[in-house]
Design goal:
Length: 417
């Protein structure tokens, strides 16, 4: 009997090993089709045209299409394709599915995607390309060999790295050259918006026009984004940071530019409804518009904070600095929001500082600062001009005691945009 059990066990193991590639193949097909189904959004759609599953390998043909009417029409006008066929060759290994994907009919051409998917659905990907050139009716764009790699989990979490050594864009009026563009990110899309962090950086961005009049260069230009939810997943915070080490133009040099902008305590449910409606912005119905207004009203009634944490402009004579911090309290009644009443509820402060040496170097700026000083909205303090004001009862109240309606300032700013 024991000998029979051993023979049965060995036989069972052999049968399992023999059938395992088929099991892996079935898992691969399910994972592949699920992933393709998740690609579709307002801009593009994807579908599997053919899935030829074999014993040790499979071949898949997939179509990606641009669905946004405006983008599709523009691409057609430029003579660019609006759909692509992808061929994927899958290998069923013992614990993973390996795939190589390339454009149909372009096996020797620029882009190759290599993925390794575990049986639990987690995937590692590597995308590499050769020199890639796109030609429109009046423009062209060229990428040097670039790479994108990372990992995606079944929970939607992604960790990626991007490296693009050079990008060149040109049309009859403008040329742009981007050198050493790279980035990385970690996080996931949840309820319609990004949770995590991202960093993008370019060593140099050079722009020149046809006449050479408005040429300028950005050096070490970077962008960082961090977004998160609270423990209850009811409030959302986001922080955007822009840094440029140097800006060079024909009329002068900015030695650095640093901007940090943040919004906090935003209502997650309201943002989710807004994101869901805006996903099909091209065909919003009157009911959608009403729901969108209600979602915005709820977002405002729940209260939030908004801040320009830092605005530093470095010039040769000195550095201009500004900060703005505003808070809107929660309205427990959740009534429709009147813009005038909302402005009256805002609290916060505004700070700004301009060195006298900077105003002396720039006559236009000196004129503006002199006007603010005469109106008691700015004051001299040693070798700088300073603005300090608080926001209360719908007014901007300056250190001098002068009050200016905040709505008037906001309307004036909108008129200048």
């Amino acid at each position: 009997m024991n000998q029979l059990k051993k023979v049965a066990a060995v036989g069972g193991a052999v049968c399992l090993m023999a059938s395992w590639p088929l099991v892996v193949g079935q898992i691969a097909e399910r994972v592949f089709k699920d992933n393709i189904a998740n690609i579709g959004n307002q801009l593009i759609s994807a579908k599997v045209l053919n899935y030829d599953r074999g014993y040790l390998s499979s071949h898949v043909k997939t179509e990606i299409q641009v669905t946004d009417p405006g983008i599709k029409a523009q691409m057609q006008y430029e003579g660019l394709p609006t759909s692509w066929i992808l061929n994927s060759d899958l290998q069923h290994s013992l614990f993973a599915i390996h795939a190589i994907t390339q454009l149909d009919g372009q096996a020797n051409q620029p882009i190759k995607i290599v993925t390794q998917t575990q049986l639990n659905g987690n995937t590692h990907f590597e995308v590499d390309s050769q020199v890639t050139h796109y030609q429109g009716s009046t423009w062209s764009m060229t990428f040097t060999p670039m790479s994108l790699s990372g990992d995606v989990t079944t929970l939607g979490e992604i960790d990626y790295k991007l490296d693009v050594p050079s990008v060149q864009f040109s049309n009859p009026d403008l040329q742009i050259q981007v050198s050493n563009f790279y980035g990385n990110g970690q996080g996931k899309k949840e309820k319609g918006f990004w949770i995590g962090s991202q960093t993008l950086q370019a060593d140099k961005i050079a722009m020149s026009d046809r006449l050479g009049v408005d040429d300028f260069t950005l050096e070490n230009a970077g962008y960082q984004n961090t977004s998160s939810m609270d423990a209850d997943r009811t409030r959302y915070d986001t922080r955007q940071q822009f840094n440029i080490a140097k800006i060079t133009a024909k009329d002068g040099v900015i030695e650095h530019l640093n901007v940090i902008f943040s919004m906090g305590q935003l209502d997650v449910d309201s943002l989710t409804k807004i994101a869901a409606i805006l996903e099909h912005y091209a065909d919003i119905t009157p009911a959608d518009a009403q729901n969108l207004q209600q979602a915005f009203d709820r977002l405002i009634s729940k209260g939030f904070s908004i801040a320009l944490e830092q605005l530093d402009i470095g010039l040769a004579p000195g550095q201009i600095e500004s900060k703005v911090d505003l808070k809107l309290p929660e309205d427990t009644q959740e009534t429709p929001q009147d813009p005038l009443e909302v402005v009256k509820k805002l609290t916060g402060n505004v700070e700004s500082q301009v060195p006298k040496a900077v105003t002396e170097a720039f006559p236009v700026l000196r004129q503006g600062v002199n006007e603010l000083v005469s109106m008691k909205m700015m004051r001299e303090n040693g070798d700088v001009y300073q603005m300090n004001a608080t926001v209360q009862d719908g007014n901007l109240v300056f250190a001098s005691g002068k009050k200016v309606p905040l709505m008037a300032i906001l309307m004036s700013a909108m008129m200048q945009m």
